[in-house]
């Protein structure tokens, strides 16, 4: 499978409860280059985080949010979607593929679903080539 | 507060391409309130520039800093140590901030990243509107605290023009008619009588028409 | 008579006065202007010359007025405050008067965003009412703004526009009153299509005694087509065209729409003539000046002697 060393950062809402004790480490080990960052709510995400993450060397960023109605802070998951859109818009303006940043409402909420998504994302990033090489937008 | 907007990245790049190290400096006052030049936006612009140059394989040093206020010397000193290490300062301050930096850092090019727009208020998150032109002789007391100079597209002092329709200005249906607001406000506070008087021509000499203005307060001087 | 204006003379005589609008050319061609002027000659008491109407650059109103005067017209120089500050406006008032122009219509002007110079600064140093007061103060007190006396002050018959169809509705008559108070001798209204609303406006004006103090000329613009009607109803600031009028135009076959528009204009003139307080009619036939005589003839407003001897 496509698990090469692709530097990917996943910001995920803590309330998704994707990982039990110890599972996070196990999951990360299976995906070299993957960073899992747990945040209190996806609404905590802001465009400058996302761009900074790419500017610091990541090839792609995923934001995992709860379903809109399921947000513990009511509006967080709605806001994060708008912010991801704003960051993607920025990439477009910069001539960089906006798909390097993705907003995902994982369903079902499971590690398997995340894995499936990551596989797809890695494929996409590979087709784009390394950030900093000419790419088709 | 001062309301501004970010310039297009292409315009910014055209101005800074010639330098190899850029200090991106935000301002955490007015332009932070209007979400365009504060600490967050400084990080955003610095990251965007990094990505933009990375894409072009152009190696540049891009550093970010944010001052509490870019228009006051005491705060401007906050970047004194970083300035000499960079070729240029890219300022996310308003026009006043940019010029204050230039006054302090005399040998450094300062490039504006913003277009400074107006004195306005935050109507709601994400919406800012112009309501003061700094004319130098506030007459809001006569107009129900709605300014005819700033909020009427034609600066009319004696009532709405013939283009006012359904409370909207003739220039754009999204723009409220300033005079409609004035009349409604005065009606609500029972002071509509204020409008029957003829208002003579405005004395613009206290505005920018009188040349660049300054305020000197001896009691405030060191 | 307060002035040498022939328009004032006509209005004072009590006859139903007629003025028409004449738009100067986009350029320096005097022939176009003279042709338009000739077609109106003998049909109107005075001719309004627009001042860069809808913010489109045209021959200066003062220059065009002077040319029309040579032709035998009694010109009304329109002046907008959009493009000139008080120095230029007052200077132009002197200049216009020196050229023999005796009538001025003081306007604020359409915003520059409507024209072909959208990037221009909007001056708006004065508003229309302040310009009106300026012309009046020159005449009554022989002074310019600020009170400085002048030699041989221009004696203008001064007018202003009013739009009975703009909002806030109740404010329109108050504003008319302000214009009268500031010194308006005559008022030319925005084009009238909504006669009901105009009648209400006139009765409000009568109720506070304004029709005793100022001559009101009712604005009429013939519609050329249903397209023009729709365009004016939706795109032109301050125009109110009732839906029934638009459908009346739409029902006419394409080649008959111009005639229908002229018929509507004729009916409008006949109807406003019956409204107490209406002193005359102001026909604004946009790039259609040559059709004005037949409209006036059909409306029974009649031929009149050439303005200037």
**How big a fraction of the residues of chain A is strand?**
15-25%
Largest interface: B-C, 30 and 36 residues
Please give the order of strands in the largest beta sheet of chain A. Answer: 2-1-3-4
Number of domains of chain A: 1
Number of E strands of chain A: 4
What is the helix tally of chain A?
A: 4
CATH architecture tag of chain A = 3-Layer(aba) Sandwich
Q: So how many helices of chain C?
A: 12
CATH class of chain A: Alpha Beta
- Placed side by side, the strands forming the largest sheet of chain C appear as 1-2-3-4-5-6-7-8
Count every beta strand of chain C, where a strand is a DSSP E run of 2 or more residues.
8
Question: Which residue ranges of chain A are poorly predicted, with pLDDT under 50 across at least 5 consecutive positions?
Answer: none
Q: Topology, please?
A:
The complex is a heterotrimer of chains A (137), B (222) and C (309).
Chain A (H helix, E strand, L loop, with lengths): L7 E6 L9 H8 L3 E6 L7 H9 L4 E6 L10 H19 L6 E5 L5 H18 L9
Helix pairs in contact in A: 2-3
Chain B lengths: L1 E5 L2 H8 L4 E7 L2 H4 L5 H17 L5 E7 L5 H4 L11 E4 L3 H10 L5 E3 L1 E11 L2 E6 L15 H4 L16 E2 L2 E5 L1 H11 L34
Parallel strand pairs in B: 2-3, 2-4, 4-5
Antiparallel strand pairs in B: 1-6, 6-7, 8-9
Chain C lengths: L5 H7 L4 E6 L7 H11 L5 E4 L11 H10 L4 E6 L5 H13 L4 E5 L20 H14 L15 E6 L8 H12 L3 E6 L3 H13 L2 H4 L1 E6 L5 H10 L7 H9 L5 H17 L4 E6 L8 H8 L10
Parallel strand pairs in C: 1-2, 1-8, 2-3, 3-4, 4-5, 5-6, 6-7, 7-8
Helix pairs in contact in C: 11-12
């Amino acid at each position: 499978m496509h698990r090469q060393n692709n530097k990917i950062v996943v910001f995920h809402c803590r309330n998704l409860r994707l990982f039990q004790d110890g599972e996070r480490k196990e999951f990360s080990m299976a995906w070299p280059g993957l960073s899992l960052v747990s945040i209190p709510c996806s609404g905590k995400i802001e465009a400058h985080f996302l761009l900074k993450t790419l500017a610091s060397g990541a090839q792609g960023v995923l934001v995992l949010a709860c379903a809109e109605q399921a947000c513990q802070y009511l509006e967080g998951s709605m806001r994060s979607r708008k912010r991801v859109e704003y960051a993607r818009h920025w990439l477009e303006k910069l001539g960089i593929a906006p798909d390097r940043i993705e907003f995902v409402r994982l369903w079902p909420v499971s590690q398997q679903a995340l894995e499936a998504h990551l596989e797809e994302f890695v494929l996409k990033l590979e087709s784009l080539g390394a950030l900093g090489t000419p790419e088709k937008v | 507060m001062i309301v501004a907007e970010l310039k297009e990245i292409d315009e910014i790049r055209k101005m800074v391409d010639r330098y190899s190290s850029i200090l991106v400096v935000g301002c955490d006052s007015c332009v932070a309130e209007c979400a365009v030049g504060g600490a967050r936006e400084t990080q955003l612009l610095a990251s965007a520039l990094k990505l933009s140059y990375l894409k072009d394989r152009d190696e540049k040093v891009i550093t970010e800093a944010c001052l509490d206020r870019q228009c006051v010397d005491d705060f401007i000193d906050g970047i004194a140590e970083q300035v000499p290490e960079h070729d240029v300062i890219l300022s996310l301050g308003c026009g006043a901030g940019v010029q204050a930096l230039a006054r302090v850092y005399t040998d450094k090019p300062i490039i504006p990243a913003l277009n400074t727009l107006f004195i306005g208020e935050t109507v709601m998150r994400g919406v800012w509107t112009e309501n003061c032109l700094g004319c130098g002789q506030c007459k809001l007391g006569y107009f129900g605290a709605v300014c005819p100079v700033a909020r009427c597209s034609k600066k009319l002092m004696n009532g709405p023009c013939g283009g006012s329709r359904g409370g909207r200005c003739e220039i754009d249906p999204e723009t409220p008619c300033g005079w409609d607001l004035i009349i409604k406000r005065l009606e609500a506070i029972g002071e509509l009588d204020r409008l029957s008087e003829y208002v003579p021509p405005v004395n613009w000499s206290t505005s920018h028409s009188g040349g660049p203005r300054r305020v000197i307060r001896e009691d405030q001087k060191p | 008579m307060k002035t040498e204006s022939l328009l004032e003379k006509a209005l004072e005589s009590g006859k139903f006065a007629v003025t028409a609008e004449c738009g100067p050319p986009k350029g320096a061609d005097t022939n176009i202007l003279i042709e338009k002027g000739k077609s109106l000659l003998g049909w109107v008491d005075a001719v309004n010359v627009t001042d860069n109407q809808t913010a489109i650059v045209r021959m200066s109103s003062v220059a065009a007025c002077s040319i029309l005067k040579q032709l035998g017209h009694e010109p009304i120089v329109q002046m907008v405050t959009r493009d000139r500050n008080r120095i230029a406006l007052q200077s132009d008032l002197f200049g216009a008067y020196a050229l023999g122009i005796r009538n001025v219509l003081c306007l604020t002007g359409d915003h520059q965003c409507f024209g072909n110079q959208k990037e221009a600064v909007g001056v708006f140093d004065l508003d229309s009412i302040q310009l009106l007061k300026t012309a009046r103060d020159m005449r009554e007190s022989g002074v310019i703004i600020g009170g400085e006396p002048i030699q041989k002050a221009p004696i203008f018959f001064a007018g202003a526009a009013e739009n009975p169809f703009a909002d806030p509705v109740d404010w329109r008559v108050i504003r008319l009153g302000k214009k009268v108070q500031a010194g308006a001798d005559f008022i030319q209204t925005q084009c009238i299509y909504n006669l009901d609303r105009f009648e209400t406006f006139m009765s409000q004006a009568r109720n506070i005694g304004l029709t005793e103090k100022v001559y009101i000329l009712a604005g009429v613009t013939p519609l050329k087509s249903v397209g023009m009607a729709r365009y004016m109803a939706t795109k032109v600031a301050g125009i109110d065209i009732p839906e029934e009028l638009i459908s009346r135009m739409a029902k006419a076959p394409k080649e008959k729409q111009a005639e229908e528009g002229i018929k509507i204009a004729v009916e409008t003139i006949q109807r406003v003539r019956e409204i107490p307080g209406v002193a005359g009619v102001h026909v604004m036939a946009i790039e259609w000046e040559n059709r004005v005589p037949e409209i006036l003839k059909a409306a029974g407003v009649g031929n009149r002697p050439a303005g200037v001897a």
